[in-house]
Fold:
Amino acid sequence: MGSAMDGTPGRRRALVLGASGNVGAAVVRRLVAEGHDVRVLLRRSSSTKGIDGLDVERRYGDVFDTEAVTAAMADRDVVFYCVVDTRAHLADPTPLLETNVEGLRGVLEIAAGANLRRFVFLSTIGTIAVGVNGETVNEDTPFNWSGKGGPYIESRRQAEDLVLRHARERGLPAVAMCVSNPYGPPDWQPKQGALVALAAFGKMPCYLRGVGAEVVDIDDAAQALVLAAERGRIGERYIVSERYMSQREMFTIAAEAVGAPPPRFGLPMGPVRLAAAIAGASNRLLHTDFPINAVAARLIALTSPADHGKATRDLGWHPGPTAEAIRRAARFYVDRRDRNEQVVNL
Structure:
């Protein structure tokens, strides 16, 4: 039977876990726009700005609440798992492993017996290899930076492996989506968008030379996950990214979109690594919470172009230019600032 997810009449019953996050909220918005029956499972303390006003059923609990997860999943066709702790800077990695791996493990046990059509897992571009000398990589390029990404990348690799193992060994109809750095409004709690916001405010006078990242429009990323619920091949993973973009280009696009001064000069990575090492030592010894450490700085530099051709071939996914999403994000951040709302913690 057809579905609105693939452009034909039909309606799916979807559950979104992690709907308070940026990607999770975008998935909810996409599902609602396509007319699906959407349920979300939220913690009562979670911000819901990204989904407020949408026609969704709200349930309350978290991924460790077996009863709540079981009840929320009971009559669903598709589950979108978008729960992730992204705090790569943490001095103590315990929360990363607890949420990203152990919380997922319990949900997978429930999902394996839930008679789902698809389990769409939000993974990360960080589980993909890094190209040597800037070479382009894809889903089949052997992972080549073990031990360099710290606890965050390790937790995400373990999580993705856990999902794909359930597909192989338990028959879970799972698909892993390796999403890169998403940009675009609404972005109420900027993470990747924090530097774009600073550039839009004219507070980013420099960029890191030779540094960039794979990027994608947040709405295109959501579309890829929704397409995967219909067309994704079970047990496969897909790169969800439009293209590689340098920091200089990204900050310049954001600044020029709102008439702010673009960055004027480039910095080498050396001073950044030194500052990150000092911040990491402070986090360990003084229990501060600076959002960077030596490993996080290494993650900034360990990037390369990636090929999303598999998602185009299998899913029919054709992302638009992320540059336009960055322009929209810049205008969104400036509008919030002009309304005297806190956008980023400076």
Q: What stands out?
A: The first helix runs from residue 22 to 33. Confidence is low (pLDDT under 50) at residues 1-9. Residues 12-185+215-243+305-320 form a domain with the Rossmann fold fold (CATH 3.40.50.720).
